[in-house]
């Protein structure tokens, strides 16, 4: 790779790339999480002509896609990603998987070889269409500069939905670099509001009948049903009918804390979840998928619907949960207007050694008003839901698809979406390493992200899962070393400072509290390496 | 995620997982680069019963797959990877793309949901088959424990070839955990030796005629043709017929240095490559693909075959290049037995500020006998081929597929394959960040890998590519900041030490030489952050 290809004089006229960017911004997509390569250079160059687009550089595509997920969960509209051919999209696929499970809108702009270069099977050529299809509701390749405005608008429309989804636009390099003189940007038809059309009328009617029946009913809430509006409606239904209310296990975005109606989440361990649903004869799904265990285990049922229970679905999974719940509440709880809300009752600040419990209490005590919590704490987060239930009002974003490496990138996107709100990223150590370079973007963009890495030196979740699948190993087993991160111990303070994020270590509750207070007092990103013993020894 | 699923007592009898591992090892696949999750826990547990299998833990799947690529390039046999469902495979796909382009054998073992859990569409479910198909020559899902031995043997056979390829075995969790009492491991039919059968007889005959014709011929060599045997044969042909000899631009493994017949590589910039091939009327491809530019550029031909030239292909791309060259040499150069070899003539150690040139001279001067060089130096490596041509004998592995993030993982695998040979990983800074956690595996396994990070604070290659596609930007352009890594500057010394790899910074040639000498004198991994000005300012 000896120096640059010498090329023609830079084009001064409008390019397809500029039309693409203008179309995106006109359609409201004005943030782009980018990790570009050669085939995207005209899209990069076009940024100068479109200052309304904020381009956020990431050092790895999984950071770009996870950021787009976190952004859209908070902004309620898609960001774009800018990715380099098949391998770039592949690197972003795991976090797109999480976004797909979250029902998040994302517009992937994936550069591809120029149209006449593609058949040459150059080294970076791969089946990008098949790859994109594994995570995208829609994949489209733009074949001419004249179509690029329309194609871009259509890609945004597909992302916005309803239902919101991942939309991938493949852009051959020449389609981007060709002159677009005289071409207009594409325009977006205003999206259909996620109104009654998204609801399942039959499902609503059968759910209403079930709720009136007097038989034990559980309302399983997901998607936008976990915003305040949906939670109020769910609790109105509960007050009127005696139904139990539960949130899905891994919410896309759960509004909670002081002032919001509280809701428990379906538990991750199947045995606990089965107990939560025991006795239910009608399960009403409002924006949630029918509950199943995360994995199959020997001799255990994966389906969590209690035997003999009837399932009623009032809307698409993930979509319009709050609208569906309000429709259902209007049917069965018209007379109920007020519901109980969580009070402001944070835990007292603990003292002494840092544990999963004391770390959670520190977080619960200090969580600031309006915080956005990105939760990839895995086993170390076991005590968090309870410890933060009475904290100041906040949003809680979780790992919807189980593809680890979500936390640091999603925190990036949430902070870009909500620059006036503090983002707390509660991050397990093993998972952090998949997308650790997100810290550099935190620093580069000076984002108000405070990361707590739960540094327990282990894939502790897998120690538990090993038991769950009946494959326990003695402590000195060589195989068991594959679940350890302690040799060598990762130094997250060094990793963070190496990427420009100020960082400290905390081994006591007092040190964690001090670090979090300092982070809140200073602008920009911070990291605390919270050394906790693993939950599963 | 509140604590483990409680499960049944651990099974003491033989499991499918044990049969799988035993089959792999019996077939010669005795290294596994692993990043497992719940669905692979029985495969992890089975390691204790199969101590012949070396399991190497990685913190990210792209490290596992890149390591498998580097391993196979040096061991000439596949390693296994152990990956977690679709998202795990997705994270490993970019480096599998490089392995596919390298013609490297890899056996991917991808855990999947238990058969009865799969239809439940649990959060981690995705179209893993489609994903695997984008990089694999063969994808097979094992559907019963009774078949697992045979399925595993078949997966290894498909990887071994000929031609060597990526073979993906999807293993449902229950197929791995079910008792395999009384079942035998699968056995591998001895692979067909890559003999004359892999050759193209018509191509050999037409190539021989062309070489005899007296018209200008160029022999473009790739695959195993770039090992010593192939190079000797290529040079015999050149001596006998006057043909020119060139290596493909990005070799899988090039043997070179003192004692090996030297060969120039086709250049990366199309303009230079076109000059190299100018005047050729017959292009003989021996293990190389027909040459094309890496990307398409406005107004330039992507196809590098000179107009009017005839192409002769003597073997499959990547396969049996050395065998083909020997067959061709036997046809046209039977009387030539000896060829010129490179002498031992390393450059003098330079002094003064570190530049792309002086850094290359330091590497060339100190490269130890038998070194394995993993080259992802991108622009900062411009002077390396010349500066190392007279170094002690070594192997040179390059980025075959253009999916960056290859260097640190491939160095991992090369070091595991050849524990008695020093591995030098020459690594660009931007590319390093895609798979930086490989450093932790270097430390954990105490691998003899010396990494030189060319720390130029930029995606310098893209600055060049920007010119190449005619999209130059002024120095103060906001868009241009998307090609900069300087704000904040990455501190690779902190990153390396944070993962347990001793590291120093070098700003002069003397400091780089000192650091490399120290690294050679101490066991285990080292990193030098070599601060060089970017080649493309």
Descriptive notes:
Chains A, B: One of its GO terms (molecular function) is acetolactate synthase activity. Chains A, B: This is Acetolactate synthase I/II/III large subunit. Chains A, B: It holds the Pfam family TPP_enzyme_N. Chains A, B: It comes from Pseudonocardia halophobica. Chains A, B: Belongs to the TPP enzyme family. Two copies of one chain form a homodimer. With 537 residues, the first copy, chain A, is α/β, with parallel strands linked by helices. The first copy, chain A, has three domains: 16-177, Rossmann fold (3-Layer(aba) Sandwich), CATH 3.40.50; 203-332, TPP-binding domain (Rossmann fold, 3-Layer(aba) Sandwich), CATH 3.40.50.1220; 356-531, 3-Layer(aba) Sandwich (Rossmann fold). In chain A, 35% of the residues lie in helices and 16% in strands. Chain A contains 19 helices and 18 strands. Chain A has helices at 16-26, 41-45, 61-75, 85-102, 128-133, 145-160, 173-177, 201-212, 228-241, 270-277, 321-332, 356-366, 384-388, 407-417, 429-432, 438-444, 460-468, 492-498, 509-521, and strands at 31-34, 54-57, 80-84, 106-112, 138-141, 166-172, 217-221, 244-247, 254-256, 264-265, 282-286, 310-313, 371-376, 394-398, 423-428, 449-455, 503-506, 526-531. In chain A, the strands form three sheets. In chain A, strands 9-14-13-15-16-18-17 form a seven-stranded mixed beta sheet, sandwiched between helices. A six-stranded parallel beta sheet of chain A has the order 2-1-3-4-6-5, sandwiched between helices. In chain A, α4 links the parallel β3 and β4 (106-112). In chain A, α1 packs parallel to α6. Chains A and B meet through α2, α4, α5, α7 and α10 of A and α2, α4, α5, α7 and α10 of B.
């Amino acid at each position: 790779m000896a120096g640059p290809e010498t090329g023609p004089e830079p084009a001064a006229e409008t390019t397809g790339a500029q039309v693409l960017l203008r179309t995106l911004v006109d359609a409201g997509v004005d943030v782009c999480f980018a990790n570009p390569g050669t085939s995207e250079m005209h899209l990069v160059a076009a940024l100068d002509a479109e200052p309304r687009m904020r381009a956020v550089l990431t050092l790895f595509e999984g950071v770009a896609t996870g950021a787009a997920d976190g952004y859209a969960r908070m902004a309620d509209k898609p960001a774009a990603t800018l990715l380099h051919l098949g391998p770039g999209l592949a690197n972003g696929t795991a976090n797109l998987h999480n976004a797909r499970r979250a029902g998040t809108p994302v517009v992937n702009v994936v550069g591809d070889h120029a149209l006449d270069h593609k058949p040459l099977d150059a080294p970076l050529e791969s089946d990008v269409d098949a790859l994109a299809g594994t995570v995208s509701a829609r994949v489209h390749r733009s074949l001419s500069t004249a179509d690029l405005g329309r194609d871009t608008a259509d890609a945004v429309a597909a992302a916005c939905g309803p239902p919101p989804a991942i939309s991938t636009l493949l852009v051959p390099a020449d389609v981007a670099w060709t002159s677009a003189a005289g071409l207009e940007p594409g325009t977006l038809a205003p999206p259909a509001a996620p109104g009654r059309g998204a609801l399942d009328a039959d499902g609503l009617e059968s759910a209403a009948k079930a709720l009136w029946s007097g038989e034990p009913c559980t309302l399983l809430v997901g998607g936008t049903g976990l915003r305040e509006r949906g939670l109020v409606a769910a609790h109105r239904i509960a007050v009127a009918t005696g139904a139990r209310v539960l949130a899905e296990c891994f919410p896309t975005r759960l509004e909670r804390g002081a002032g919001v109606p509280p809701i428990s989440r379906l538990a991750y361990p199947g045995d606990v979840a089965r107990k939560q649903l025991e006795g239910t004869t009608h399960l009403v799904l409002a924006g949630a998928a029918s509950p199943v265990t995360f994995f199959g285990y020997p001799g255990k049922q994966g389906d969590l619907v209690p035997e003999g229970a009837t399932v009623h679905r009032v809307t698409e999974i993930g979509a319009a949960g709050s609208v569906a719940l309000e429709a259902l509440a209007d049917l069965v709880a018209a007379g109920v207007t007020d519901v109980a809300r969580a009070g402001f009752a944070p835990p007292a600040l603990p003292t002494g050694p840092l544990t999963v419990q004391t770390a959670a209490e520190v977080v619960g005590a200090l969580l600031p008003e309006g915080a956005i919590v990105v939760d990839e704490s895995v086993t170390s987060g076991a005590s968090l839901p309870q410890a933060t239930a009475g904290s100041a009002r906040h949003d809680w974003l979780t790992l919807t698809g189980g593809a680890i490496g979500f936390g640091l990138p999603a925190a990036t996107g949430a902070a870009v979406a909500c620059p006036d709100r503090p983002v707390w990223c509660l991050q397990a150590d093993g998972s952090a390493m998949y997308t650790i370079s997100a810290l550099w973007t935190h620093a580069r963009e000076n984002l108000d992200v405070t990361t707590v890495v739960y540094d327990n030196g282990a894939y502790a979740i897998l120690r538990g899962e090993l038991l769950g699948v009946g494959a326990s190993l003695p402590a000195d087993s060589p195989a068991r070393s594959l679940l350890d991160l302690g040799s060598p111990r990762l130094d997250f303070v060094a990793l963070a400072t190496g990427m420009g994020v100020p960082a400290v270590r905390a081994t006591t509750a007092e040190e964690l509290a001090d670090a979090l207070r300092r982070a809140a007092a200073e602008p920009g990103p911070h990291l605390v390496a919270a050394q906790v013993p693993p939950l599963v020894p």
